Structures are given as structure tokens and as C-alpha cells.
Amino acid sequence: MTDVTGAPADVLHTLFHSDQGGHEQVVLCQDRASGLKAVIAIHSTALGPALGGTRFYPYRTEAEAVADALNLARGMSYKNAMAGLDHGGGKAVIIGDPEKIKTEELLLAYGRFVASLGGRYVTACDVGTYVADMDVVARQCRWTTGRSPEQGGAGDSSVLTAFGVYQGMRASAHHLWGDPSLRDRTVGIAGVGKVGHHLVEHLLNEGAEVVITDVREEAVRRITERHPDVRAVADTETLIRVEGLDIYAPCALGGALNDDSVPVLTAKIVCGAANNQLAHPGVEKDLADRGILYAPDYVVNAGGVIQVADELHGFDFERCKAKATKIYDTTLAIFARANQDGIPPAAAADRIAEQRMQEASSARGRGR
């Protein structure tokens, strides 16, 4: 079901002609009093209620926001399936610059829209939203996770997101080089914000060489002042060309792997926290043709969603960390399936996730 009352023509075109189709429900939300404009996309509830974060971002157009919500929601279905969670995939985007328009009234209005879905969608943090924001949303909606410990939540999910990416890197190293150790490996991280700065710590603790970049100077400075041995470069274009780079970790926004970046990438492994790293279908083959091992983003960055899902049942950090540790084994299983089927790892991960969702749908159908 798609609620499209009053939707502009370009938004309708995006909804009904997107190559990210198959969504169960898309809700366009507007609250004039607070200035809220948002999109909630539910891709699948085959495995359970859709779970995914709320992105707050200044999209250029409403159609661009819808397209991002659709793409991100579909990715959450696959992520939750590969993480072994009893949740389908959903995502919400709030349109606007959070530094300028985010208010308590707007977040409360957003919470009311999520609540109106009756539990089909469970929301959490994403780019532009934080634990404090989820505490506000939760005042209007009990289907909110990623809250503060003071409000019964688990707090910052970026800690386990980074830990899961680290496990994915270790699995990738094991598959490619026969040894999971990252000691003396050179890792380039694009984006050292909520997740990236935790990833830096894991890598340094293991003895890796770390090179970083970020569009925000203060984010880079926070790392280099604490760790003078970390090298900073001007931008991602420079980072991906660093000589001797072993692993590239995109940890900012999506689309990092594209027709421009893949041909010049020096790393032999790509494993990062960013969602939707492949700019378009076919990039995964381009990586494979160049002999670059790609750890599917939605597999290795699942630590955060493991945490927020656990919060719904009474959060236990050690239990979550144990689940996130299994990302290592899941990543290795994907590489094995890719070799077995003669396909890139991204396609192998999709096949495994789709199989789990299909089996759940079939079981539900038989149970009726």
C-alpha cells in the first residue's frame, strides 16, 4: 500500500518506476505546524516488523528523498535477514537540514506518524539523528529504539557497528591472505564520524596503519590529536589512490564505489560501514574483475541493527557483542558461496538473504 495523496508528479514517478521496487508500503508524512516532511518506506515484513533508522538530510528534491528511502529500506531487509534478526526492512527520511530545522515539535510529529503504523515499522537513529532525538520520538511512539540508557535504551549503536565492520575486515583478510590479523596492514577510512572513529581504535589496537579523511576538519583533528601516528589526507579522491593501501573502508554516505573510484582504487579489500556503497548494479563485477574483494556493506555494518533490535527485548551488551562477532563467520560464508556459485560476494549475500525471506514468507503462508 502506498499513501500518495497530493504527491507531486516527480515523487509519484519515483514511487512507481523505481528499480528498488517491491515495497509493501510507502508513507509520505507532512506536518505543517512543525515543518515536518518525511518519507517512511517499508520494504518487507516477511521476517517480522520492519526495522530501520531515521535519516535527517537536506535532500535537493522530494523525489530524491523518496528514492533514498526506498533504496535504504530494501537494504535493511537484506541486512536484517543476514544478521539473523526476526525483522523486515524499513527506513525513514526526514527532509531538511537538521542543523536548521530539527526541533522537538518536529520530532514529536514524526513520532506520531511512526506510531500510526501500529508497529509495522520500528525506528532508530541514522545519519542526522541521535540518541537524544530517539528519546523525543519515543514520547509519541513506543516502536522506537536507539534510545538512551536513561530512557530504557541501549545508547549509541555506532560502537557495535564499528565492531562488526572490524570483524568483517578480519574475515576478508582471512579469505584473501589466509590470516585474519590486520597488524601492519594499511587501512584507509573515509569518514571518521559516529562509526569511523570507533573503527580507528580497533585497528590501532591491532597494530594496523591507518589513513583517514573526512569532510569535517574537526572530525579529523579529533583523531590525529589523540593518535599522532594516524595520517590524514585531503579527501576521498586522494585516499583511494594511496600507495600500499590494503583495505578501503567507506564510512560516510553511499555510492562510494562507482565508475570513477573503482578503476583507481589501490586497495585489495573494500570493507566499510557506509550503506549502499555500490553506486549501481554492475559495480560489484567491476570490483571482482580488478581482483578487489568486496565485503557486502549490509552484512558487515549490521552490528548497530543487532544492538537496536536487542533493545526491544531488554538490552544486554555482551549478548549483542556475541551476535556481532558472528559477522566474521557470516562474511566468510558469503565469500565461500560466491566462490561456489561463481558470482561476486554482493550477489551471493543477496541470494542468501532472499532465500531466508522467501522461506519465511512460505512458512507464514503455510501457517494460515
Automatic annotation (TrEMBL):
Keywords: Branched-chain amino acid catabolism, NAD, Oxidoreductase. It catalyses: L-valine + NAD(+) + H2O = 3-methyl-2-oxobutanoate + NH4(+) + NADH + H(+). It comes from the Bacteria. It is found in: Cytoplasm. Homodimer. Pathway: Amino-acid degradation; L-valine degradation. SUPFAM superfamilies: Aminoacid dehydrogenase-like, N-terminal domain (SSF53223), NAD(P)-binding Rossmann-fold domains (SSF51735). CDD domains: NAD_bind_Leu_Phe_Val_DH (cd01075). Coiled coil: none annotated. It holds the Pfam family ELFV_dehydrog. Residues 155-365 form the Glutamate/phenylalanine/leucine/valine/L-tryptophan dehydrogenase C-terminal domain. The keyword NAD applies. Its EC number is 1.4.1.23. Its main location: cytoplasm. This is Valine dehydrogenase. Belongs to the Glu/Leu/Phe/Val dehydrogenases family.
